[in-house]
Amino acid sequence: MARQLLQHCKKCQVWTLQRECPQCNETINAAAPLKWSPEDQRANIRRKMYNVESEEWLASLPELPDIVSTRRTLNEEE
Ligand SMILES: [Zn+2]
Fold first, then answer.
1. Taking all residues of the chain, what is their mean pLDDT, rounded to a whole number?
2. Is 77 exposed, middle or buried (0-12, 13-18, 19+ CB in 10 A)?
């Protein structure tokens, strides 16, 4: 897992790449959250890993109860 490099001590307002503040020696926080993208950059690798579209993969998928019994349950709750 990638780690945010730039750290910021809120107490001293010091920026550093170290895990401890050079002024107060306390453990300090990442300056900003890790960059995140909604695009799944490794989707192709993941699909290969899980052998997507194979029979085993299809069988491993969760199933919802059928819509008729779901509606019946919802109506009973009302
Ligand atoms: Zn500090």
1. 86
2. exposed
